Amino acid sequence: MDLDSLGTEITACRRCPRLVAWREQVAVEKRAAYRDEDYWGRPVPGFGDPLARLLIVGLAPAAHGANRTGRMFTGDRSGDWLYRALHRAGFASQPQSTRRSDGLTLTDAFVTSIVRCAPPANKPTAQERETCGPWLEAELDLLEHLEVVVPLGGMAFAQILRIYAERGAPVPTPRPRFGHGAEVDLGTGLPVIVASYHPSQQNTFTGRLTEPMLDAIFRRAHEMLA
Fold first, then answer.
1. The whole model's pTM is what?
2. Of 42, 52, 95, 163, whose CB neighbour count within 10 A is largest?
């Protein structure tokens, strides 16, 4: 299997009834600003360079962002922040990600999430996160050159550590605490985890996360890859 084949499987997934119902309801009812657009309304596969050494892991598609556009972190304000930062760091060909046909390409980076369907109130349940877990694990298997993983937010951070711990990686005990800029070295042959606050409006509007703070994360990633 390759990433394209995996993406096809992901977009056909209907394992979580609550998420299926919500993503499809949103795609029919739409937001007024997007009433003339055709919503994606399906699970969203990862996006980026199949030879990536940098992996960025978010929580889930936004109801009127990736659930509308079909590309991770595309069409919402969180994505505006993320792709501007990736462009400034040299990983993205342009600072905007508006739709799948906008010409954006990523170099040495891949963007994904721990849950593939937009959840109500942007809060997937623990069972939904567990059910969706194999998709992320499959991407980790196919992205054979990873050296740095940047989880955006505490849930993504915990999920990444859990996956690697279950695979026998020497994750410290007790588990490292999430914090912006926290780093976890998993040892030889495994990527370094560099945690970041999620560029959600809750964080960016309150100043908990600023653009210089996000830039610092990707500068650090760039240094590690260099």
1. 0.97
2. 52
